[in-house]
Amino acid sequence: MDHDLDLYAEGPALTAALVDVSSVSGEEGPLADAIERALRRLPHLRVTRHGNTLVARTGLGKQERVVLAGHIDTVPHAGNFPSQWDPERVRLTGVGTSDMKAGVAVQLRLAATLPEPNRDVTYVFYECEEVDVARNGLFLLSRNAPELLIADFAVLLEPSGGVVEGGCQGTLRAAITATGARAHTARSWMGKNAIHEAAAILDILRSWEPRKPVIDGLEYHEGLNAVAISGGVAGNVVPDECVVTVNYRFAPDRGEEEAQSYIRDLFAAWPVEILDSAPGAKPGLTAGPAADFVKAVGGGPRAKLGWTDVARFAELGIPAVNYGPGISEIAHTPGEYVEAAPIVAAEQALRTWLTVSS
Amino acid sequence: MDHDLDLYAEGPALTAALVDVSSVSGEEGPLADAIERALRRLPHLRVTRHGNTLVARTGLGKQERVVLAGHIDTVPHAGNFPSQWDPERVRLTGVGTSDMKAGVAVQLRLAATLPEPNRDVTYVFYECEEVDVARNGLFLLSRNAPELLIADFAVLLEPSGGVVEGGCQGTLRAAITATGARAHTARSWMGKNAIHEAAAILDILRSWEPRKPVIDGLEYHEGLNAVAISGGVAGNVVPDECVVTVNYRFAPDRGEEEAQSYIRDLFAAWPVEILDSAPGAKPGLTAGPAADFVKAVGGGPRAKLGWTDVARFAELGIPAVNYGPGISEIAHTPGEYVEAAPIVAAEQALRTWLTVSS
Q1: Hey, is B304 helix, strand or coil?
Q2: CB spacing of A305 vs B173 below 8 angstroms
Q3: pTM of the model
Q4: Closest residue in A to B203 (Cα–Cα)
Q5: Which residues contact residue B332 at a Cβ distance below 8 angstroms, ignoring those fewer than 6 apart?
Q6: Neighbours of B154 (CB within 10 A)
């Protein structure tokens, strides 16, 4: 079935139309088709497609270029498809409403109605943000066609409650292994209990004090947590291994390598295996189009503590922020919704930035 | 196939014949049949059978009665069936050699060749010692026909390296649960990490000092160990539960209820669930036939630290010991063996006790 999107419908109505084209990660084809058709009708945009990821660019020869990016996939349905409009509370309920088809609707409305923005704009609609990084459309684009992402600044329309969220913290997971020697518990002194040894690892976690560095005026807040622990052989055996898996969320003044070294040093008494890691991103809100953006949008920006695709732009040397109408706290829940007013407000703020200011 | 046992063969040869009738737990039928046929040929014994458990008793009207008991099952084969005789090292290799067909051979030899011992003797050959207690032949006998076990003293011919092992320690397992509150690790201070909380449980285990009480002249040695730990929800979630499973091995001066209370008190800050427990048994070697036995067998007795069926006799008010020719340390290993000399020596010591002394 072909879906036709009316990019001139009001933001909430366009959001509902986007939600009602199912696009669970890996199954974005029909929605990408619909978005592509709608974009190709706009003569002021050059459209390219990579898989189910679409890039649409103005080519006005402006001094500055900015990216407006959003993912078009959602988590699996949870009895919340299609969307439902709640006229009393003026909100739209359904999978992907907040995360993040409301943001995509704002992108599409601006793409359709701003033929001559004050900066060149690159609109990115990408696939597979909700699944493993190897399939992430923005990641693939940054590897296969990074020239399409060249810009001075980027806005990810991820749900941020209409507040500018700057940068993001990095994250790494590491497995720390306490070892011992097996013995029958009837003669436990013949062995060495690895679970008992692991208490020293947990003691470090318990006494750890988080850093809260202020970067470009935004306060970050680190975290270091055991996210898993396992050990044990049998009910009558002194165990010889206990593995503690920790997750370190580090502020963006610390690089990926530095964060890994920090964890290795902190747990120097044990073998440490880094399981995965992703760098953070500094907010970079103090100069250039980012500063203009913050000024135009208004309100005090805050630090993004979770990890987002903002970091991908940072890798490319492009300052980026999250700014979108959805509510991140209810993303991925069966009751996910988005209110109508913030959709209109976000569109208006971005429209002002792209027409009036600077 | 019917197997014929020659109870007048030398101990090591009879051991080999017993090993070569496979009797993995639950499959003792053919061996029980062979033992039953051999026992029923002995006019001085009254034989009764319960499942694959056999009881053979003298009825001489003596003032004292003693039990010689052994299990006839083995753990599953591990490439070590049938038995192999090693003439150079004068040992027999194979599944069940040490644990405990060498002991069963000694029982059978005494049953056949002692028509008029100085004490009445009850020989017990029982099934399913190597599996869960509900199938244990001695347990079933103690519940269904306890009158068959009435005696002043019992010897279990479990492998003890020819040393008298008195009593046994009790054992219990308990699950101790640390709780917390889930949160995303990017905002971990919104939650409470249950794995970090569990460190306090491990600290108690680390600083715990074992009791080593001396009971009837034998020194016991308690143990308290984490045997399992588990916790964790996902790589980016502060976990809300961590369960530490502990195994407490307690000396037999402490009862089952008392041991459970001790553990509940020690970990009073957390919910404690008792998973299972089994009482210990005091050695009771200072008086009566037990004292005579120790004197006849010679050597210094030692405390049994592991849990054995000795505790079942204790439940019935009968002092009991382990004393057998096998080697407990190699039981259940593929290379399990028994040396010929201790088989002969154990038989000789028991024969002396049942003929000469007192």
Answers
A1: coil
A2: no
A3: 0.77
A4: A199
A5: B75, B99
A6: 27
